């Protein structure tokens, strides 16, 4: 069985028999294969459809054998989109012309009459080159940081200035505002981009495992230490370490972390050998860390170490310009993932999304859109498809009925309120892991 892959191919040739035969062959391997007899249509087609590969005849009837017309069209295509892979097709193939075509920007050529296998292999390799380029130039949809509001533009501006330096960065923002995503973005933009990015959720590490997790241990250091273990700092060596929830570590561990940052070296638990560490440090927290420092809950000297550059990610309600752009971004992402026909937001839904205050920020919007796309029926997403919490219902008090789910929902709501929305603290309060709490917040649409 032949498997088709998601490539878009265009064949341009003035010989209809050639078009039909080549299309028949390629159609079995690529999702979309279009053909065009009239080269004058090339600019329109290239501008309006995102082709990956164009198989282009060199000799149209106007000028049968010099290849001149083919070269003109090759130039036009690359003017419009220099990324398209163009393969030249010629019945008068001589090596000199083929070399000229490649110098002029074509990726390869095929002689007519062709052998099916050769034609297929050439188009496949052109498509692979194009796919590799696409991957390099466009980030995967899950990596794309959406943000056109002035606040986000300012963030991008700061990032472009500091990403290439080794400055320590502290990212501040409520839960779900994109701190983790921004840290990864900074790493991708940095000189260390081909080295490891290691993310550590400090809020999720128990006090007993803190040191061994971050700095590693040697065999026999404690009862469960059956093997030597590399810590997260060593794993990140040469790259970036992202310490999430930095505001949640206790004072003794703050001191240990400070020592490591000052000495630029770690010692594995149970060893006294210093291991030099070269990492770029990015930290994040949803807490008011300046305030914590003022109250002696966070060491001021550690704060100075980690916040050479501070980036504040504002909550979604303060960057309403981004709400629709993000909603549309997630709509595209999930419509492709779940193969749904939906492709736009109804005007009244757009209004509703803008008016809502998004306490869970982008994570909440993302989940709301995912559910909505799955449940959607037509091409336009309607207000009824999107379930967002009614802000008024957030004030619910514990109800005395015996509906377990309802009770669980209420208890979680209260814990979240008590902890001012701090997931780590609320999870601790409820005796749940952060992941378990996230699952429940999602389940109850909180
Ligand atoms: N600017 C953005 N563009 C597109 N998606 C985004 C953006 N910001 C965040 N997201 C998405 O929103 C979700 C939450 O983002 P992320 O995990 O980075 O937030 P966070 O601030 O680190 O959350 P927490 O404090 O709860 O750990 C992720 O799925 C992420 O992909």
From TrEMBL:
Q: Which InterPro entries match?
A: AAA+_ATPase, AAA_lid_NorR, CheY-like_superfamily, Homeodomain-like_sf, HTH_Fis, P-loop_NTPase, Sig_transdc_resp-reg_receiver, Sigma_54_int
Question: What is the species of this protein?
Answer: Chitinophaga defluvii
Span of domain Response regulatory: 8-127
Q: Which UniProt keywords apply?
A: ATP-binding, DNA-binding, Nucleotide-binding, Phosphoprotein, Transcription, Transcription regulation
Keyword Cell wall biogenesis/degradation appears in the UniProt entry: no
User: What is the designated name of this protein?
Assistant: Sigma-54 dependent transcriptional regulator
Domain (Sigma-54 factor interaction): residue spans on this chain: 145-374
SMART domains from the xrefs? AAA, REC
The record, for Pfam families, names: AAA_lid_14 (PF25601), HTH_8 (PF02954), Response_reg (PF00072), Sigma54_activat (PF00158)
Record-listed 4-aspartylphosphate modification sites: 57
């Amino acid at each position: 069985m032949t498997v088709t892959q998601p490539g878009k191919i265009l064949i341009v040739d003035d010989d209809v028999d050639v078009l039909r035969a080549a299309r028949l062959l390629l159609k079995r391997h690529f999702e979309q294969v279009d053909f065009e007899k009239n080269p004058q249509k090339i600019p329109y087609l290239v501008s309006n459809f995102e082709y990956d590969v164009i198989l282009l005849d060199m000799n149209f009837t106007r000028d049968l054998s010099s290849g001149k017309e083919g070269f003109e069209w090759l130039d036009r295509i690359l003017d419009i989109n220099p990324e398209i892979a163009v393969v030249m097709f010629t019945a008068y193939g001589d090596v000199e012309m083929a070399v000229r075509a490649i110098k002029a920007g074509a990726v390869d050529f095929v002689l007519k009459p062709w052998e099916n296998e050769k034609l297929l292999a050439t188009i496949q390799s052109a498509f692979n080159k194009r796919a590799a380029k696409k991957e390099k130039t466009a980030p995967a949809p899950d990596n794309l940081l959406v943000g056109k509001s002035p606040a986000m533009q300012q963030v991008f501006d700061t990032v472009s200035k500091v990403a290439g330096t080794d400055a320590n960065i502290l990212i501040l923002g409520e839960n779900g505002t994109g701190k983790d995503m921004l840290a990864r973005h900074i790493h991708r933009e940095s000189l260390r981009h081909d080295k490891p990015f290691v993310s550590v959720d400090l809020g999720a590490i128990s006090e007993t495992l803190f040191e061994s997790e971050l700095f590693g241990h040697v065999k026999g250091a404690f009862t469960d230490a059956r093997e030597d273990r590399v810590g997260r700092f060593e794993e990140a060596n040469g790259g970036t370490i992202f310490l999430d929830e930095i505001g949640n570590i206790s004072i003794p561990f703050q001191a240990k972390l400070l020592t490591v940052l000052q000495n630029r070296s770690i010692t594995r638990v149970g060893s006294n050998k210093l291991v030099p560490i070269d990492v770029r440090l990015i930290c994040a927290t949803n807490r008011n860390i300046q305030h914590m420092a003022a109250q002696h809950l966070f060491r001021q000297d550690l704060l100075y170490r980690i916040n050479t550059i501070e980036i504040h990610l504002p909550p979604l309600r303060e960057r309403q310009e981004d709400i629709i752009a993000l909603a549309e971004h997630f709509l595209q992402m999930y419509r492709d993932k779940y193969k749904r026909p939906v492709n736009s937001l109804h005007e009244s839904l757009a209004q509703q999304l803008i008016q809502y205050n998004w306490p869970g920020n982008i994570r909440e919007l993302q989940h709301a859109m995912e559910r909505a796309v799955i449940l959607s029926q037509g091409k336009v997403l309607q207000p009824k498809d999107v379930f967002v919490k009614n802000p008024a219902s957030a004030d619910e008090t514990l109800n005395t009925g015996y509906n377990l789910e309802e009770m669980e929902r209420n208890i979680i709501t209260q814990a979240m309120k008590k902890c001012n929305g701090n997931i780590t603290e609320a999870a601790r309060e409820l005796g749940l892991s952060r992941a378990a709490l996230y699952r429940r917040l999602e389940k109850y649409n909180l």
